[in-house]
Design goal:
Layout: H1 2-25, H2 32-35, H3 54-73, H4 76-79, H5 85-109
Helix pairs in contact: 3-5
Length: 116
């Protein structure tokens, strides 16, 4: 109990100290370029409502799909300590195989290429 209280106190103290240091050392020099809604460095010439390419959304969905495998595979180190870890390892291998096949399919269909 003493160690837990020490760690909570240490992390709270460190968080408060770093936050105070950030407020103390931060440079607050707003100018017209920093206050403008566009951060690209030049004034907009055309409409801001241009349609996005569907490729951006496709890459975002692919990232989410392949990023979810981490959430599914995180418990694997603890699953190897079970009485029969082979079932868990077979399911994990199946998930990795399906994701690899999906990646190969997307790659062969040209879904990962930016230039056409």
């Amino acid at each position: 109990m003493n160690m837990i209280l020490f760690m909570i106190t240490l992390s709270l103290t460190l968080s408060i100290a770093l936050t105070a240091l950030n407020f103390w050392l931060a440079q607050m020099n707003p100018d017209s370029e920093k206050l403008s809604p566009y951060e690209c460095g030049f004034d907009p010439l055309g409409s801001a409502r241009l349609p996005f390419s569907i490729r951006f959304f496709l890459v975002a969905i692919l990232f989410l799909l392949f990023d979810l495998e981490i959430a599914l595979l995180l418990p694997l180190p603890w699953a190897t300590q079970l009485e029969h870890p082979t079932t868990t390892l077979i399911w994990a291998s199946t998930i990795i195989l399906l994701l690899t096949l999906g990646l190969v399919y997307e790659w062969s269909q040209g879904g990962l290429e930016w230039a056409e």
